[in-house]
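help with this record:
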Amino acid sequence: MDMRGYQRYREEAVHTMTPGELLVLLYDELVKRLTLAQLELEKEHYPTFEAAVERSLAIVHYLEDTLDRQYPIGQDLARLYEYFCYELSRVKIGRNAEELERVKEMSAELRDSFRQADKNITAGQEAGVAP
């Protein structure tokens, strides 16, 4: 299989996504990495666990860096992302499965909310309603 063609396809797909779709994609990756961290923690594969937590932290930092803080929701999300970073740091140091589950559940709920919001915006645009 030609991997260059596949890589080009993936890059083009990302470039044609709406901001809402990109946000959901980031949250999908965050939840995926947190799930991987859980599985690796259960297996006591600590290097892979730590790498998954680090990648999760990087995603949360990116989400935080791209926030528009001029709106109250941006400020609220910034505080939530700070909480995620704090908890994930504790998870990594203490290998705390309970806190990891809590952050994963909250991330999945946020992802689902953003996914629904993106669907509502898309449906409104298709119906000719301004966002």
